[in-house]
Write a structure and sequence with these properties.
It comes from Aliivibrio finisterrensis. By secondary structure, this protein is an alpha/beta fold. Helices cover 45% and strands 20% of the residues. It is rod-shaped, with a radius of gyration of 56 Å. The two termini are 87 Å apart. The structure holds ligand C2E and magnesium ion (2 copies). The site of ligand C2E has 24 residues, from strand 16, helix 10, helix 11 and strand 20.
Length: 630
Amino acid sequence: MQKPLTSSIIIPEKIQQDWQTMLNVLAELAQVPVALVMRIHEQEIEVFAANASLENPYSVGDKEALHQNLYCKHVLEHRQKLIVPNALNDPNWANNPDLALNMIAYCGLPLFWPDNTPFGTICILDSKENTFAPTHQHLLETYQKSIEAQLNILFQHTELLHNHKKLQLEITENNKRINEINSQLANEIDCRRAAEQKVKYHKNHDIGTGFLNAFALYRHIDKLINSNQKFVLLHIHFANSRTIQQEHGHSTFDHLLTEYRSKLTKITDTSVTGRLDSSDILLIIHADKKKLPKLCQHLSEIGKACFSNNEAKIHLQSYIGAVHSKENTSRNDLLKCAYNTVIECQSLGKTFTISDRSLPIKSSLSEHKIETYLLEAVRNNDLFLSYQPKVCPYTKRWVGSEALLRWNHPQLGAISNEVLIQLAERNGLIYELGNFALRNAIQQTSEWVLHSPNLVTAVNISAVQLKDPHFVQHVKQLLNLYKLPPKNLELEVTESGLIADEALAIETLTQLHNMGVSIALDDFGTGYASFQYLKKYPFDTLKIDKSFIENVEYCANDQNIVCAMINIAKKLKLKVVVEGIENHNQERFVTLEGVDSIQGYLYSKPITADKFEEGLFNQTSIGTPYFRFM
Ligand code: C2E
Ligand code: MG
Ligand code: MG
């Protein structure tokens, strides 16, 4: 940006008026007819301000072309005062144009801008000879200084304005450049982010379907486990995947899987899908236990539905293995359990199976350490029994209880019974655990029967205990000690306990049965024992396993199996107990089939002896107990 030329600086009107006033005073004091401020231009000189007098022949705006005979030109060229007392007598000024206006005397001073460029002059003229008294010259000099001071201010102001404009221009330019750089940078960041996202996406997803790949899914499972979140892991195997891929191509199968996935969102919005390999996917959902069977049923129906690909109509043949996450279970064990469940589901020809397997606890603590803790717990009486009521399906009164072992370790937390019993069976501590459960249950029941004489308490007996030749004697001693009639005690054994040593088990159980203790076959239907067992052993009660009840509302197969088990039990004159009743539909179904007693969370979870006693003693005489424990 160029510096402003002084010639282009505009003198404000107000200053021009001030100068005029000043010139009036000057003319009057110097007693001359003319006082002027002249402004020089490139080719001419202009009357810029003039005193107001009738004798003044000059008007503001009058111009004269620049030539040698002008006083003002001379003053500016020599940068000094010029006094011409009488031009008529001075041959140098014979051609001066002012003579034509009768002005013969002149006294003038130059006016300069602070940058030394000329502005013009301040001068007084007279029509008669005049040597211009020193006071008048002094006055003229004072006005010259005053005007130059004003020119200085104007100049500074103009320069300031100019610099301000220049700065603003620079700022605008800089801002423009910064904006350009910023937008280039943002563009580059966007491109890089998009590329990074693509890489991240490929790292974590299956390309064909967009599902998480195994690597990302495992990480997700770990996160859920570490934050103690409960979830359900579904392993879905598509048995006809290979055929579809062979006939219609891999991309068609991938497309079917994404369609399958999009249909899932209609039944559950909290799912994460991962692809393990070409024919298996894993689904993580947050569903509670009650809703899971219905959800699995929906899932298999979605698979069976028709997917159209061009003209062809394709169905997915899916098998679903579901497993609930449990505290302290490792990712690997969960995956293994889901995988085994889906294999089992396929081999049984079911569409879905919900695992009831026990999951091992994380092996962060060695088995040896847990054993030590367990030994301490047995010795220090840190174990206790909880009791779960058995209910009459018709009156809903509590007719019995099942004693269930509980161990709440300060470091390990609540330990699942499956883990506890397996461990104790392996290291022989089961004798101590078993005796503990028997003694406590018998002692406790002996107090309750004083109030409820028909109450029967069931105690679970391990296969290892049955091998103990002193077991019968031991039970007899405890019954005598606490004065509990044998009819108030039931022993629950599982099929696995019978297989171990058939002859000894028959002998032991028969002696107990003859004593009046009732014998129940627990978890019926889960093992491999044939119905022959029911004839061989002196069972009084058959306890249908909860895994058949879980899906009985939806699954026709399970309904048929439960009916068949109840019929056989009735034919063999065995009582039937059903465990795992969690809702009224399940209750209605088994009640209609005519079972003897029912047990499950619908009535109460296993509770402490005190709470059980409260519930037992506070039952109304007929109908449901007036309160429930959940
Ligand atoms: P079990 O004898 O079949 O006991 C029933 C199990 O089902 C108990 O689990 C109980 O809490 C659970 N249960 C009861 N109602 C419901 C329900 O409505 N829904 C569901 N999902 N579960 C229900 P728990 O206490 O964890 O015991 C597991 C197993 O550990 C028992 O199965 C039994 O085999 C064994 N056990 C428990 N206490 C002892 C004991 O003192 N000695 C021996 N040898 N085994 C024991
Ligand atoms: Mg049991
Ligand atoms: Mg059971």
